[in-house]
Amino acid sequence: MARTSRGAPRSEEFTFVSPAVKYLLFIFNFIFWIISLVLVLIGVYARIVKHAETALACLAVDPAVMLLIVGVLMFIITFCGCVGSLRENLCLLQTFCICLIVIFILQLTAGVLGFIFSDKARGKVTEVINNAIVHYRDDIDLQNLIDFGQKEFDCCGALTYLDWSKNIYFNCSKDNPSRERCSVPFSCCILSNDTVINTMCGHDIQELDYIKVGNRIHTNGCIDKIVDWIHSNLFLLGGIALGLAIPQVEPYISTLAQLLIEETHVEPSVMFSGLQLAGMLLSQILMNQIKDQMELQNYNQKHSFDPWS
Fold first, then answer.
1. What are phi and psi of 189, to 5 degrees?
2. In the chain, which segments carry CATH 1.10.1450?
3. What distance in Å separates the CA atoms of residue 136 and residue 138, rounded to the nearest whole number?
4. What is the largest CA-CA distance in the chain?
5. Contact call for residues 132 and 233 (beta carbons, < 8 A)
6. CATH number for the segment(s) 122-222
7. How many Å apart are CA 284 and CA 290, to the nearest integer?
8. The pLDDT value given to residue 261
């Protein structure tokens, strides 16, 4: 009668695959799978229903097309992660992990190239922002995007708040009949957390002295703020990449932990990169566990009819 070897437990009684890792990776991918569907729906709506071609022509790339591309790619990648983790499929998990690594390398490469060719990047950003200012009132989505950027970065205009004179509604020429003549958008205004937003707070700002203007609105342009933000995130991404380059798991986790502890306010791009690294780590752990489980099953199959096992 065959006996079970003490050093090799049967696959029916023991498994190397951790349910915690398996279902954590599944939930991780399922959440982003839902987000990818939302991005695709928004992209389809913006592209087919809105037809805001003229207003958005000032941007280098159509945001609707970008949403569709990002949404479809995210859908495919997270689908591989969902099914791969749930079905313990090595091929899908490897595809998921490789895709995350490629995306991370592309992000880091784009950041490094942007740092090296900062002058060209700065010129392109200036061109895009100036064109967006000209078309500010042409589309509500473009308007909301500019307002969000100015409030987020505490800035106004491209290089200075006077750039808003390039817009026909805010232009300071005497023959301008607009009620917003010589004004700036409300998103340029300095507001405290408990202050009710006054949409007319930027009225006639361009006609005031610079000292008085500084008490009411942010006078710094958005270009310097955006460039500084890119540079600061580039160094953080480089630190994470350094941690990724180390094959041991312990330094890798400590790099992420140190980043989260030291940063009181984690930027969205850094958080996204951290989630990417977490996905790669979980998928690698699960793949190793599945490989160990397959080796155990092969071992048991070879020795199942061995009278000396």
1. -75, 150
2. 122-222
3. 6
4. 104
5. no
6. 1.10.1450
7. 10
8. 41
DSSP conformation class of 177: -
Confidence check: pLDDT of 177 > 50:
yes
CA distances from 173 to 67, 165, 184, 207 (A): 38, 9, 14, 11
Least confident span in 8-17, 18-27, 260-269: 260-269
Cβ atoms of 154 and 251 closer than 8 Å:
no
Residue linked to tokens 């071609």 = 53
- Under the banding of pLDDT at 50, 70 and 90, the label for residue 233 is low
Distances (CA, A) of 142 to 56, 57, 131: 7, 10, 11
Alpha helices (H) along the chain:
19-44, 53-56, 63-87, 90-116, 118-134, 140-153, 210-214, 222-245, 249-262, 268-303
In single-letter form, the type of residue at position 133 comes to: I
Residue 34 has pLDDT above 90, yes or no: yes
Residue entry with tokens 């006996």: 3
Amino acid (1-letter code) at residue 70: V
At residue 141's C-alpha, the angle toward residues 135 and 144, to 5°, is 90
Place of tokens 């498994």: 15
Instruction: Give residue 276's identity as a one-letter amino acid code.
Output: Q
Q: Note the pLDDT of residue 298.
A: 77
